[in-house]
């Protein structure tokens, strides 16, 4: 019975770190795309989405939020921050996933602390930006933290 629980926990752990690895890779790719995409392409995309009623009424709440986000993104240091944040966040995740997949025991507490910092930041940003997605990502990170700590305890017991 204990062997089955370990196997199930191991499977969930592997799935969780695979999701984190995919997320990290997508963030790195997104950062590279954002770094090289011209401002005119971003504003053109926003204009096309709004004028084609893809978000409903062009003067509606979603359209206004998209327009505001685009303006904030294109002016000031928002684009630079987004590129730097996505690149750093993605590379950190990929490094942690690599270490966890290799079962480097010292990486487990580090991963839990880094993921906890991500949760705090995601919640902070969600409160300030009213993001719908960030609380979901924070909850996913909490689940992954629990799985990382469970796997860490099992590795420590086996050693």
Poorly predicted ranges: none
Average the pLDDT over all residues and give the rounded result: 84
Largest sheet: none
Shape: elongated
Oligomer description: single chain
Count of discrete alpha- or pi-helical segments spanning 4 or more residues: 6
Number of strands: 0
Helix content: over 70%
- Ends: how far apart? 21 Å
Structural class comes to mainly alpha
Q: Gyration radius, to the nearest Å?
A: 19 Å
User: How would you spell out the order of helices and strands?
Assistant: HHHHHH
DSSP strand (E) fraction? under 5%
Keywords: Membrane, Transmembrane, Transmembrane helix
Transmembrane segments: 82-100, 107-124, 130-149
Organism: Amycolatopsis melonis
Protein name: DUF2127 domain-containing protein
Description:
It is a single chain. α1 packs antiparallel against α4 (78-101), α1 (2-36) crosses α6 (133-158) and α5 packs antiparallel against α6 (133-158). The longest helix has 35 residues, at 2-36. The radius of gyration is 19 Å and the shape is elongated. With 159 residues, it is mainly α. It starts with a helix and ends with a helix. The chain has helices at residues 2-36, 39-51, 61-74, 78-101, 107-129, 133-158. It is built from 6 helices and no strands.
Give a quick summary of the entry.
By secondary structure, this protein is an all-alpha fold. It has helices at about 1-35, 40-50, 60-75, 80-100, 105-130, 135-159.
């Amino acid at each position: 019975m204990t062997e089955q629980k370990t196997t199930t926990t191991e499977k969930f752990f592997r799935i969780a770190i695979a999701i984190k690895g995919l997320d990290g890779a997508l963030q790195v790719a997104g950062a590279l795309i954002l770094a090289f995409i011209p401002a005119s392409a971003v504003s053109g995309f926003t204009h096309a989405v709004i004028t084609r009623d893809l978000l409903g009424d062009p003067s509606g709440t979603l359209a206004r939020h998209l327009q505001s986000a685009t303006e904030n993104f294109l002016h000031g240091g928002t684009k630079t921050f987004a590129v730097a944040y996505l690149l750093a966040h993605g590379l950190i995740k990929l490094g942690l996933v690599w270490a966890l997949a290799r079962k480097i025991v010292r990486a487990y507490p580090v991963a839990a602390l880094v993921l906890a910092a991500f949760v705090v930041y995601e919640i902070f940003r969600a409160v300030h930006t009213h993001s719908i997605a960030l609380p979901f990502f924070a909850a996913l990170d909490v689940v992954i933290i629990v799985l990382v700590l469970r796997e860490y305890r099992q590795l420590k017991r086996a050693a």
